[in-house]
C-alpha cells in the first residue's frame, strides 16, 4: 500500500473535497456510462446532470457526489491512493442513480433537483430499463476491477438492503397512523438504515476494501456509513417539516402536507402525551390536508417531542459514527476528511 | 471433477430432463426467494407460479425452466455433478424472472402464462421493485457460491446484453417500416441474440464454469447458447404469426395484429419482390388493423419469403449450435441431453 497521493497541507473545505473526489472519479464514470446503449446512456447522463433531454451538454446539479467521495476516502483511509477506490465510487454512484430512477417511478415524483424526473421525460418503461442498465453496469464495472469480484459481495448485500428498505417505505404508506398495525419509530429507523445507510456504508467499506483494508476495518466502516445514513435521514426528516424552503427547495411542512410517515411524526405519535393523541386524531381525520391543518400538525409533532426525538436520534447515530471512526486505524489525511464529509452530510442546514 | 451423479441408463425425454433439473435446483431457488422481503417474495413466488395473489400455494405454470436446466447440464457437461451448477441455475432463473417482470411493464402486457402479470396485480411501482429485488438476489446468490465471484463477470456481461437488446426492441417499435430508418433484419437478429440469446448462453456457460470447465469450453458454450436463443426467437416469431392458437395460447396472426416488427416481417420487407412493396403499403396505411388486413399482411409476409427466411435463419443458428457442441469436449450424458434440450427449445411446435 502506498500513501495517499493528494495529501493537502491544509485541510480543504468539504465542497473542495467533493470536487477533488469528483475529479478523480469522473473519467471512469464517464467511460462506464459511455458503454451503455446510447439511448439508455442519454437517460443516465440526464440523471447525472451532464446533458439535457436530447443529449445537448449542460451542467445541471447531478447531486453532491457524497457516495463517490466516501469510496475514494475509504480507499485513502486504507492507506491506498484514492484512485484504488474509483471502481467502488463508480459502482455506488451508478447504483444510487439506478435507485433514484426507480424510486421516482414508485413514488410518482415529477421532479428531482429542480428538473423533470426521467420517467416524466422519457416514459415509465424507458426509465425502468435505464435503471436496470445502471444496475447491471455497476456490477459489471466492479467485477472487472482489481479486487472487484470479492467487492461484489459488499455491493450485492447493500443492494438487497436498499431494495428491502424501499419495500418497507412503500408499505409504511399503506399502514394506519395508530393501533397495533401502526409504524413504530424503530421500524422506521431500520428502514432508513437499509434504504439510505446501506449504500453509504457500502461506498465507504467498498472503497476501503479495494484500497486493501483488513476485513475488520471494512466491516467497521460499513457500520459507520450505516449510522451516517440513519443520521442523515433523521435530519432530512426534520428539514422535510421545518426546513427553510429557500434552502431545501421544498415547500414548508412539505412532508406533513403529503402525510408522509417520517420519524418525527412517528416518534410524536408514540409519545405518552396529550399532543400525541390530538396529532393522531388530526392525521386520521378525513379530507385533503389544508394549510391550517398541516400547520397545526407540525405544531403538534413538535409539542409531542417528535422534532427533539429525531434530532436526538441523529445525534446518537452521529456519535456512533465518531466512535466507529475512532476505533479503526485510518491512514493519512483520509480520516480527517472522512469526519468532515460525514459531519457535513448529516449536519447540513441545521 | 467427479462424474455426473445422475447418469440415466437410457436417455430421458426432455420433459423428464426438465423435471430432473428443476428438482435439483428447486430447494436452492426456494431458499433464495425466501430471503427476500416477504412482500417482494410473494410477488416473486407468484411469478414463479408457486402461489396465488395473497400467498396461497398453487401450482401454476411458471415456465419450463429451460435456463436452470441449461445451467445444470452445463455443469454436467464439464464433468461435474449437476449440483455444481445450482448457483448458476438460481441466478439465471432469478434474472430471467426479473426481466419478465420489467418487460411486462415496458410492453404493457396484462397477462403472461395465462395469469395476470405482476404489475397488473400488484401495481407498477411494486413490480419494478420486485424485479430489482430479484436482480440483486441473483448477484448475491451467485457471488456467495464457490467460484461465484468469477462467474459474476459472465452474469453481468449477459445482463448488459439483455438490457441493451430490450432497449433496441423498444426503439424498433418507434421506427418506420420503410426508408433509411427502417429496422434491418440483421439489426433484429442482433437484438434477439442479446435479448434472448445472452441469458441462455450465460446459463450454459456459467453452469459449465462453476463445474470447472476450461475457459475455452466456457466461451464456446456461451456462443452455443446465443445461437440457440437466436434460433428460438426466429421460431417464436414464426409461431407469433402462424402458430396454432390452441398450442401457443395466443391469437392467430397475433404479432401482426399488434404490428410487431418481427423477423419474418422485416425479412419480407427487405426482399426485392412486389409482395414486399404491397406489404409495406399495407403496414404503412393508417387506421387500426382489422381482421382482413391482418390476414392479408400474413399472406404477403409469406409470399415475400419472410416465413422461409425466418426458418432458414433458425436452421442456420441451430446448425451453429450443433457445430459448437461438436467442437468442445462434453462429459458423460450431459452432451446428449444438452443437444436434446436445445433441439426441443428451438423446434417446439414446428
Q: What can you tell me about this protein's structure?
A:
Two copies of one chain form a homodimer. Chain A has a single domain, classed as Farnesyl Diphosphate Synthase. In chain A, strands 1-2 form a two-stranded antiparallel ribbon. The relative contact order of chain A is 0.12. The longest helix of chain A is centred in the middle third of the chain and has 28 residues, at 215-242. The first copy, chain A, has helices spanning 14-34, 38-47, 66-77, 86-107, 118-122, 124-144, 148-172, 185-210, 215-242, 245-248, 254-257, 263-270, 274-284, 291-303, 306-327, 334-347; strands at residues 111-112, 115-116. In chain A, helix 7 (148-172) runs antiparallel to helix 8 (185-210). Chain A has 16 helices and two strands. By secondary structure, chain A is mostly helical. Chain A is globular, with a radius of gyration of 20 Å. Residues 1-9 of chain A have low confidence and may be disordered. Chains A and B meet through helix 4, helix 6 and helix 7 of A and helix 4, helix 6 and helix 7 of B.
Helix content of chain A: over 70%
Q: What general outline of chain A do the C-alpha atoms trace?
A: globular
Q: Biggest β-sheet of chain A: count, sense, barrel?
A: 2 strands, antiparallel
Number of separate structural domains of chain A = 1
How much beta of chain A, percentage-wise?
under 5%
Structural class of chain A: mainly alpha
Quaternary state, please? homodimer
> Whole-number average pLDDT of chain A?
92
CATH topology of chain A: the name is Farnesyl Diphosphate Synthase
What is the terminal separation of chain A in angstroms?
Answer: 39 Å
Give the CATH superfamily of chain A: Farnesyl Diphosphate Synthase
CATH architecture label name of chain A: Orthogonal Bundle
